[in-house]
Amino acid sequence: MPELRKDPVIGRWVIIASERARRPGNFVDRNDSEIEMEERQCSLCADTQNAIATMPQVFSDSADSSLGDVKVVPANPSSVLESVEFIRSKKGLYDVISGFGAHEVVIETPEHITNMTDLSVPQIRLVFETYAARIQALEKNEQYQFAIVYKNYGVTIRDYAIGHSRSYVVATPVRPLRVKEKLIGAKDYYDQKHACIYCDLIQQELASGDRIVHETEHFIAFVPFAARFLFEIKILPKEHHCDYHLGLRGKEADLAQMMKIILEKIQNGLDDPAYSYVIQTAPFRRTGLYSSKWKTIDRDYHWHIELMPQLTRMAGFEKGTGFYICAIPPEDMAEYLRGVE
Ligand SMILES: [Zn+2]
Ligand SMILES: [Zn+2]
Questions:
Q1: Which of 17, 107, 251, 309 could form a disulfide with 218 if both were Cys (CB 3.0 to 4.6 A apart)?
Q2: What pLDDT, on a 0 to 100 scale, did the predictor assign at position 98?
Q3: Left if phi > 0, otherwise alpha if psi is -120 to 50, otherwise beta: which for 110?
Q4: φ, ψ of residue 6 in degrees (nearest 5)
């Protein structure tokens, strides 16, 4: 069973995937030509045409039938992670939790389409509605503190064998360090100014317009003022809400439209690069320890999407320091993307 281990110095949790250990001699990532060969065989489509249709669904009740073509399956079908009880233990200085939580694969389409950009707007909308439905369902399990949605498209070290448009929902009994840093930063700002920093950012970005990539009725997409990566984009709902699954209501079609446009700009303007996105939403509010510490979270935190094309590899300097070097000014990146059809 995988486990969570905490770095005793900075408090960062790491998932140690014990069962996926590679064999000795197999630690080096394969070269690009081998990866390309594997790209052609999709394990989701390969076996039978009905491979996807016959997979066990995570959903069990008919209320979710509106999700149409989108399927959600456990990332590891042999383990029913939702029934696992997390056991915390201490080994001297080290904290360990057995298991790490739910890990679900959202198969975005039954057709073999690799890039979400090539899905229709209604299909993209179904995918984002599915994320919301899954977060809502996972929140009911009291063991989980936090859920996050992520997607990796293109040739990346993990998952390179499956070039089928998919994304993931993860729920864990702990909060990742970067999420904690964001929550603390947003709360500090709120404590000083009695305002949501993200709402204030939206006002400032709309007023200047320099870093805006696209705007819809309910969302703005912009290159952050201190972007870490080339063409990093943040997508924020204009209306304040800390929870993705609740804040999305009534804006599903508009978000799908925004995602389609932004992903097309990246595909066409940057020569179809690999990319990742993460949906950042507030942790689940549980009674007890955290309730007093995060009592203003509804007002101080604002859900959002971080989209990161992978145009450069993270170098040792960034990995070692967390100090990023961005080679193009964010204003120039935004101007370029605004011009891409
Ligand atoms: Zn496929
Ligand atoms: Zn806000």
A1: 251
A2: 74
A3: alpha
A4: -105, 130
Tokens 């942790």 correspond to what residue?
Answer: 283
Render pLDDT for 87-97 as a digit per residue (tens, 0 to 9): 788 888 777 87
pLDDT at 247: 97
* Residue indicated by tokens 């925004």: 258
168 neighbors 105 (Cβ within 8 angstroms): yes
* SS percent in the chain: helix, strand, coil, step 5: 35, 20, 45
Proximal ligand: closest to the CA of 197: 2
Q: What is the DSSP letter of 272?
A: S
- Report residues of the chain scoring pLDDT below 70: 1, 17-41, 43, 46-67, 76-85, 155-162, 288-292
Q: Which two tokens stand for residue 147?
A: 């859920």
What's the pLDDT score for residue 30?
A: 46
Query: CA 54 to CA 57: how far, in whole Å?
Result: 9
State in Å: Cα 46 to ligand 1 middle: 7
Query: DSSP secondary structure string, 264-313?
Result: HHHHHHTTS-EEEEEEE-PPP--SSHHHHHTTTHHHH---EEEEEEE-SP
Least distant ligand from the CA of 43: 1
Q: Alpha-carbon distance 135 to 62, whole Å?
A: 17
Q: Mind spelling out the 3-state secondary structure of 123-136?
A: HHHHHHHHHHHHHH
- Cα(162) to ligand 1 centroid in Å equals 7
Q: What is the CA(190)–ligand 1 centre distance, in A?
A: 45
